[in-house]
Amino acid sequence: MFDINKILRPNIKKLVPYSSARDEFKGEASVYLDANENAFGSPLDTAYNRYPDPLQYKVKKRLSEIKGVPPRNIFLGNGSDEAIDVLFRSFCNPGVDNVILVPPTYGMYEVSANINDIETRKVLLTEDYQLNLEGIAEAIDEHTKMIFICSPNNPTGNSINREDVETLLANFSGLVVVDEAYINFSRQKTFIQELTEYANLVVLQTLSKAWGLAGLRVGMAFASEEIIEVMNKVKPPYNINEASQQLALEALNNIDTVNSWIKETLTQRDKLVLQLKNFDFVLDIYPSDANFILVKTTGARDIYNYLVQQGIIVRDRSKVELCEGCLRITIGTPAENETLINALQNYK
What we know:
Pathway: Lipid metabolism; Amino-acid biosynthesis; L-histidine biosynthesis; L-histidine from 5-phospho-alpha-D-ribose 1-diphosphate: step 7/9. This protein is an alpha/beta fold and 348 residues long. 36% of the residues lie in helices and 15% in strands. α6 links the parallel β2 and β3 (119-122). The longest helix is centred in the last third of the chain and has 22 residues, at 255-276. The chain is globular and about 70 Å long.
């Protein structure tokens, strides 16, 4: 049975969060003399002299309408990376606790663990890039606070079997963090729908991928109200700037455009897979539920270097365990994909 008080860091239980001027007064006024801001404005066309909403309510309200969860179940971070870091700082005692990672997976989980002095216990995915449930069970001890699962997975592109994730949620007393950065491209439904079922579930999503807002740095975490309250207590007071909030709100009103991009990306992904299969140096292309594909080749580094010379940048993942000989290729525009294929046709 999950009990947040059993995994929360003792110092976080006692933490009195910083109270900003915008926390102490909520509403509209004609004169603001409470936050030591520049009263004369900004040297820009848009005035950014006032501090932003520390809890980003308008953005959360719009996300609530799109995602079907209340604003109180949403945390916004400076990218998903901030949400990951806040989870470590909230629930893991440095030098004592551990988390479980399932490589090959997103590298920031391990970086954040190392920054926070948290042990990482790695349980490799199976050969078909699925969870090794037996290995995970053996790795868990009384100091295991979180399990990170990326689905669709980066860099492999595949979705993790839903039943396996549910098995962990039902049997693990810590947090199961499901990172859905690429969920918009997947055939699998989001785990957000399971928040009321599992109190220990945290779902990460982002506006950086399908929504095309990587430069704004807006990440999302969805969880129970008590987990979100802890994360809001630990985060910096104004972690999402006003420009990002305004532009995110504007973007969230353009769902039809984003959906058309997703559809085109999937079409281009299928087309690119078929074209790449014609090359002798391509040994395998793994099934993908993301906006990229993992391609096993006869010489990943040589192909990577050749493409760099042509002004085309892909990702060499050949040194990642279980991804030997592999390149990760993002799905581009039709013109970009054609440029890639034309370049590879001249590769010796």
